[in-house]
TrEMBL record:
Coiled-coil residue spans: none
One Gene Ontology MF term: oxidoreductase activity
Matching SUPFAM superfamilies: ARM repeat
One family name in Pfam for this protein: HEAT_2
Name of the molecule in the record: HEAT repeat domain-containing protein
Keyword Signal carried by entry: yes
Signal peptide annotation: 1-22
Entry keyword set: Signal
Length: 240
């Protein structure tokens, strides 16, 4: 996407927003008229977001994320928001651009921020995308954000979410153990525990974290705290 084209779209959006604001301020309008104007502005903004998200270059994608977060602040959870965030969260993973043998669109910070925004989106489709990210992501920073987002969303149908987080915990415990990710795994498990049907994988990963001295002491201590808390809740649930 040409930089001049994107700049022109941004300017147009700014002018359109100003014009609609001035019109609404000066002339009283009924609810239906305002709704039509807002819908037109939203449609134009969605086009800007798509152009930015699909364009080359990290900076354009970061601007797209700013627009998306502004839309989420207004409560926009449309399919267009999810589609843009899915593309950004998988940038450099499922969509790979190369120059020779070099990947030129590997932007972990973009993917991490997109995962954070997917957590804010909070839909079933957003959960599916976050699980897709975890299934193929090798950057701890991105995986950590995806785990945090899934924990905050709280969606765990048939243990799909907790099983994926447990798989990630086992994977990174071997290839690249990081205390920050381990802590997010523990926090996510603690939040998702009431939704779990089979806690076996979850409890195994918690014990592994607690016994792995590559993690800092507070994280290992947290693991046994979470283990005790979940064990008590599970015991109460099974005794009823």
């Amino acid at each position: 996407m040409c930089g001049k084209h994107i700049t022109a779209l941004l300017v147009s959006l700014s002018l359109l927003s100003g014009a609609l604001f001035a019109q609404n301020s000066e002339v009283p309008a009924d609810d239906s008229e305002i709704s039509v104007e807002d819908a037109y502005l939203q449609s134009f903004e969605n086009m800007i977001i798509k152009e930015l998200a699909d364009s080359d270059g990290r900076d354009n994608k970061m601007v797209a994320l700013q627009y998306i977060n502004n839309a989420l602040d207004r409560g926009d959870t449309s399919a267009e928001m999810h589609e843009a965030l899915k593309n950004l969260a998988l940038e450099g993973i499922s969509t790979v651009a190369r120059e020779g043998n070099r990947v030129v669109n590997n932007y972990p910070d973009v993917r991490a921020r997109a995962c954070e925004a997917l957590g804010r989106l909070g839909t079933e489709e957003a959960k599916d995308t976050l699980i897709e990210v975890l299934n193929s992501e090798n950057e701890p920073m991105v995986a950590t954000e995806a785990i945090r987002a899934l924990g905050n969303m709280g969606i765990n149908n048939n243990d799909e979410t907790t099983e994926m987080i447990a798989w990630i915990g086992r994977k990174f415990n071997i290839i690249n153990p990081t205390s920050s990710m381990a802590l997010e795994i523990l926090d996510a498990f603690e939040k998702l525990a009431p939704t779990v049907q089979d806690a076996t994988s979850m409890l195994q990963v918690i014990i592994t974290i607690g016994n792995n001295y590559q993690y800092v002491t507070p994280v290992r201590e947290k693991a046994f705290q979470v283990l005790e808390s979940i064990s008590k809740k599970t015991a109460k649930a099974t005794s009823r």
